[in-house]
Design a protein that fits this description.
Radius of gyration of chain A: 15 Å
Strand content of chain A: 15-25%
Shape of chain A: globular
Largest interface: A-B, 21 and 17 residues
Number of strands of chain A: 6
Largest sheet of chain A: 6 strands, parallel
Low-confidence stretches of chain A: none
Oligomer: homotetramer
Number of helices of chain A: 9
Chain lengths: 185, 185, 185, 185
Amino acid sequence: MTDSPLARALLLVVDLQQPFLAAMPAADALVRRASLAIAAARRLGLPVAFTEQVPTKLGPTRPELIALAGEKPTVFAKDAFSALDSAELQEFLEVQNIEHVLLVGIETPICIYQTALDLLGSERQVTLLTDALGGRRPDDCAVALAYLAHLGGHALPTETVFYSVLRTTKHPFFRDYTKRVKQYA
Amino acid sequence: MTDSPLARALLLVVDLQQPFLAAMPAADALVRRASLAIAAARRLGLPVAFTEQVPTKLGPTRPELIALAGEKPTVFAKDAFSALDSAELQEFLEVQNIEHVLLVGIETPICIYQTALDLLGSERQVTLLTDALGGRRPDDCAVALAYLAHLGGHALPTETVFYSVLRTTKHPFFRDYTKRVKQYA
Amino acid sequence: MTDSPLARALLLVVDLQQPFLAAMPAADALVRRASLAIAAARRLGLPVAFTEQVPTKLGPTRPELIALAGEKPTVFAKDAFSALDSAELQEFLEVQNIEHVLLVGIETPICIYQTALDLLGSERQVTLLTDALGGRRPDDCAVALAYLAHLGGHALPTETVFYSVLRTTKHPFFRDYTKRVKQYA
Amino acid sequence: MTDSPLARALLLVVDLQQPFLAAMPAADALVRRASLAIAAARRLGLPVAFTEQVPTKLGPTRPELIALAGEKPTVFAKDAFSALDSAELQEFLEVQNIEHVLLVGIETPICIYQTALDLLGSERQVTLLTDALGGRRPDDCAVALAYLAHLGGHALPTETVFYSVLRTTKHPFFRDYTKRVKQYA
């Protein structure tokens, strides 16, 4: 990924656990869009990590998402709303020298919001993959997203970000990516 | 509340009186969201105050809201649109050393707008709790809110603000807060 | 109007002629909101002027609007899209020492847009009374309005602006204004 | 076009090929708005160029659009998403001394996005003709457009831009333009 706009980037999949998904509208679409982001990130060599909110109680990330992330998925348990509260994730970001985090998951006004603020505070870039973010209250999601964009977060669709990495139909991943775009539409 | 993002903050509940509520769409939802804000503020030690527009004529704040604010609720009568027109409220802000006001209530394009402008003019921070604000004309509310955000007001959902204070599921108020979130959904 | 936020301001009513109104959706609501703006401006001592696009061909401003503006309404004919193209209006702005123009009328993406740009270019303030502006294509109106706000125009509802001038229910015009607000809702 | 706001400007029509149009909602409206932009640009002396994505496979631009561009339409084939990937288009921009590109076509979050970024990176002005842009996923289009506007792109309706060039009903093209506006409404 050197010289790519996503060099030193991580895709962070936040709290896509069944109890949260069950409480929100359009959960199926959100899972499809998160699937697209994970599949594209993996194929383009971008590291992928997951957070899980109190997984001992709320259970793991939806299995079909974890399955897309390869054999040894990186998963961080947390009990705070910000993912940066996990000392293991903090260490991971530093060891991997991550300078840019792409966020997908739930909920935009709570865990995504606090995670994004902490990442911006740590001088990292934050991209909010708008179609792969959600929450119980869509209006609240829109308000929180606008606020994060105002603070310097990049609010962009998943396809926009990954087509920008591909740049051309000649990219070796282009055909496969196009298939994924249709599969997860 | 020291070290909290809401240290030196006040929740100001503006003009939630029945005649105004009766004239607007979605009044019930607004009262529920204001209830959430008041309940959360109280439990987290944040002072709460109310304004009432010409209460001798228009009556008091909706009783279920006042009831959430404890035994001696702080209420300021006013006949101007800006809450800062009340000398008692001005004094309260100074004596309590309030540097940040969270606004809920009605109407966004009139009393909320003028109050927010006066607060910004007094070098205080203003947070507009978007889901707990309203008015007769929803399009006008959205326009006024966008203008206030442009001037430096923080437009954020109620849940975003209070989950940011809690920060973690280990916070002593977390369980109770979650119950409130469901109760006032 | 000295010391008022609208000192040195003019309400400019742009091209509210029947052929344009007939081509747009929600024309009745637009005429009601323009009526509110004109009535409030007049009562508060704010000068009001009208522009008419090629009136020899397209006819005059809707009579009920002109009627609200007093006995000798100020009307400028034009054949350009920008109102500033009228040398008479230019002179009027200079002689009356107008530093701030409140715009209502049609169409936001054409005549309002070009007029606002010319006013901003002449170092005057521009307020766009959002509920009293319109056009054939509502999406185009929203895009043009956002662009003008980005350039420094104040996009605000009519009620927001005039309630800001009144400031209090004790203002001598308050009762009458409230009646107008209901009449033109 | 000297002294015009569109001196040194080009209208670039991106990838309006049938397979892409077939996949998106409201394709007919998009073709009509692109037709208006092409017809107006031609009549006002503004150069018009087309890009086609892998035309050997996906076919040419919709014929009715090409037909509006005169006898020898300028068409650039590309296989990258950004139009600037075409060395021929790059050369065209330099030889014609183009400093401002008006973009219409599809898809806003992919080819339009990457083209706009590259144009802004080359110190050229970019205007996004909002009503003549589109894509499969309207929400993604809105997000990408907001991001480009934030980076300095001018997001404006087609009519706004061309009425700004005409400036007055006395312009020799005014009558004809008005006809086009109705034809492509």
